[in-house]
Design goal:
309 residues, alpha/beta, Peroxisomal Thiolase, Chain A, domain 1, 4-stranded mixed β-sheet, 10 helices, 19% strand, binds coenzyme A
Length: 309
């Protein structure tokens, strides 16, 4: 495609990204399982301690069933429930919110939450598709949510929003029920782009910068905090320019915001758990820190979570 490193870095901040080697049998389910094994081990648990699975992705191995059940099989956990979340870039926080409610009601004790994406196989790798295809990377991340008796710790609140009138501004229209494979094959139109992701980039950008701020303030207000009290903001890694804009508007210092889009591109539902994991491993998230997660994406959907670590 006709593009340059300079254009990509200037507009998106992306220097590197990871794409699955098609020669391997990596898939969202298998990558998610690798991340899940690490998360379970880091939590000091065994797969058999997990009593529910939540899997967020927009790029499932199959049209149906979703990959939650495949993870259950790959981890060898017998017959627990598995839920698939379809909220794209906000998918991880939507999943976190669902898991949080299940834990707070006492229904489950240890929930495995995965975000995993295989974008590279489905992008339009041509000049026509360059506005979308230069941004997205493959990846997976996972966390284990566990019940704790410490009342002032853990997930303080989650905030979920959607505005469906903008569904087509960032979407993959077909093949799906709306535009089934039969139609695509019958038309056999070389100019058909319906089976590639479409993004109205400028429109998405403008909405993202507003919604990120709104939903972060909503979480802070709900818990009586100010932006300067955030120890670590982990925004969904959509575009470095979006994160920087939000950081400036909130008046946050560099050490209060974690970005790794430079190394991975936009990995949709996987971006927050990957960033959370790296920030934690690098010692940037410490006991008692106030951690804020925020996301915006296709739907449009947007969401935040405030966590006392
Ligand atoms: C996608 C995005 C980087 C494009 O940047 P932009 O400044 O809006 O660029 P535009 O789409 O207006 O295109 C500007 C020019 O660059 C060109 N261009 C687009 N993609 C290009 C690429 N990969 N390489 C080189 N040129 C490119 C366009 O053709 C256009 O050329 P023209 O002015 O001659 O017509 C930006 O809109 C964005 O980041 N949007 C939000 C994306 C996002 O966060 N998505 C995920 C949400 S979860």
């Amino acid at each position: 495609m006709d593009t340059t490193d300079e254009w990509i870095v200037e507009r998106t901040g992306i220097k590197e990204r990871r794409w699955i080697d098609p020669a391997t049998d990596d898939m969202p389910s298998t990558m998610g399982t690798k991340a899940a094994k690490k998360a379970i081990e880091n939590a000091g648990l065994k797969p058999s301690d997990i009593d529910f699975i939540i899997f967020a992705t927009l790029s499932p191995d199959y049209y149906f069933p979703g990959p939650g059940v495949q993870v259950q099989d790959l981890l060898g956990i017998p017959e627990i429930g598995a839920l698939d979340v379809r909220n794209q870039c906000s998918g991880f926080i939507y999943g976190l919110s669902v898991g949080d409610q299940f834990i707070k009601t006492g229904m489950y004790k240890n929930i495995l939450l995965i975000g995993s994406e295989y974008h590279s196989g489905g992008l339009e790798k041509s000049t026509r598709g360059r506005g979308v295809s230069v941004i997205f990377g493959d990846g997976a991340g996972a966390v284990v949510l566990s019940r704790s008796e410490k009342k002032d710790k853990g997930i303080l609140s989650t905030h979920l929003h959607a505005e469906g009138k903008h569904a087509k501004e960032l979407a993959l229209i077909g093949p799906a029920t709306n535009r089934w494979v039969d139609t695509i094959m019958k038309e056999n139109d070389p100019n058909d782009t319906s089976y590639y992701p479409y993004m109205n980039g400028n429109f998405v950008f403008k909405h993202a910068v507003t919604r990120f701020q709104e939903v972060i303030f909503e979480a802070l207000k709900e818990n009586g905090h100010q932006p300067n009290e955030i120890d670590m903001l982990i925004p969904h890694q959509a575009n470095l320019r979006i994160s920087q804009f939000v950081q400036k508007k909130l008046g946050l210092e560099d050490h209060q915001v974690y970005n790794n889009i430079m190394r991975y591109g936009n990995t949709t539902a996987a971006s927050i758990p990957i960033a959370l994991s790296e920030a934690h491993l690098e010692g940037k998230i410490k006991d008692n820190h106030l951690v804020c997660l925020a996301a915006f994406g296709s739907g449009f959907t947007w969401a935040s979570a405030l966590i006392r670590w």
